[in-house]
Amino acid sequence: MRKPDTIEHLYLDFDGFFASVEQLRNPALRGRPIGIVPYEGGRSCIIACSREAKAHGVKNIMMVDEAKRICRDLILVPQKPDLYRRAHNELISQIGSVIPVDQVKSIDELSCKLDEGQRADPAGVAAAIKRTIRYNIGASITCSIGFAANRHLAKIAGGTQKPDGISIWRPEAMPAPLLKLPLDDIPGIGKRMEIRLAKAGITTMAALLATQPKQLRALWNNVTGERLWYALHGYAIEAPPTERGMFGHARVLPPDARTLTDAKTISRLLLVKAARRVRRAGYYTKSITLWMQYYEGSGFDSLTLPQVNDDQALLTALASLWERLTSRLTSKTRVMRIGVSLGDLTTANHRQLDFLLDDDSERQKWERLGSALDRLNIKYGKTVASVGFWEPPPGGNVGGKISFTRIPSAEDFW
């Protein structure tokens, strides 16, 4: 395996992205502590917060009541996923004018490969990126940038100089910068893994680096641990491409819409959004799962399907799942969160019909109708036609949630 003798990767992480985009959009929020919440009047948790809020001790995924106790001036701003999506696209375009973007890792993280000239002047590359963002988009949006021999080390390097910093870890200086860090600063080492490492006598970065590749593989119970070992030791290692395993959506329900009736309506919208994504990506699904979290606990149920992707088949399956799942609940059940997922995917060119189920003509009819509805909605850039009623909840954004691994498309907000 190749071990680079120079820096080859840049990793960029936007600082408090959602909050900084809100400050860019609304000058009245600049310089003030703000916390992004899931919906108007939300009292659940802080999705993201500005650097001013972080200076008071506010953290992402902190409960709102706790955040308000430690920062009484905290301004709560409901999330606007479509705004963040558009800001992301513009930022990618602007950064691409300075250096080609190799991989978009999430809504607020990306990586670039360095050519020979860029390796010679990483500080100049970082300054050019920051200057482009500042003058072409706005000074409210800042980023931390790390340089290293591989992408993983570059990500760690950038994280050491937040916010708005630059960190250059050249191979000849390693592993000294790593030795200063706690284990939980390393991507891939969460609380559970830290406990597992401690049981193996590994409690410091020095101890982690002193292990062998197969030892970390055994601790992780898969090849991820071995890849981490090589990444931390500066080897040019790339994670293999991942295959799509499922399509799904989930939503936290606002306090005034947590009845079973409200949850059923939202589950229907979430399913249709997921089904549209399945069709756009050219897949069929063979399983559907419905899950919900309520005050007394949680529950889920699944159904196996023939290979389908049309709304009629999936909505019929959802209705059956809903009856099965809610039969265990009472009418007074308060639903906090609900989600739908479609799994066991098959690409359209590998579909096999079930010879025991003679419904091909029926499926083709519904698929043609679904394609017609999709084309009509694309033409108008919004949902103008659907199978059954279409009643988005207050606040919208059903299906437009931004996760750590997925950036929604414009169609997700229709």
Automatic annotation (TrEMBL):
Family, as annotated: Belongs to the DNA polymerase type-Y family.
Purpose: Poorly processive, error-prone DNA polymerase involved in untargeted mutagenesis. Copies undamaged DNA at stalled replication forks, which arise in vivo from mismatched or misaligned primer ends. These misaligned primers can be extended by PolIV. Exhibits no 3'-5' exonuclease (proofreading) activity. May be involved in translesional synthesis, in conjunction with the beta clamp from PolIII.
Tree of life domain: Bacteria
Residues covered by the UmuC domain: 9-190
GO annotation, biological process: DNA repair; error-prone translesion synthesis; SOS response
Protein name in UniProt: DNA-directed DNA polymerase
Catalytic activity: DNA(n) + a 2'-deoxyribonucleoside 5'-triphosphate = DNA(n+1) + diphosphate
Classification via PROSITE patterns: UMUC (PS50173)
Enzyme Commission number(s): 2.7.7.7
Molecular-function GO term, any one: metal ion binding
Keywords: DNA damage, DNA repair, Magnesium, Metal-binding, Nucleotidyltransferase, Transferase
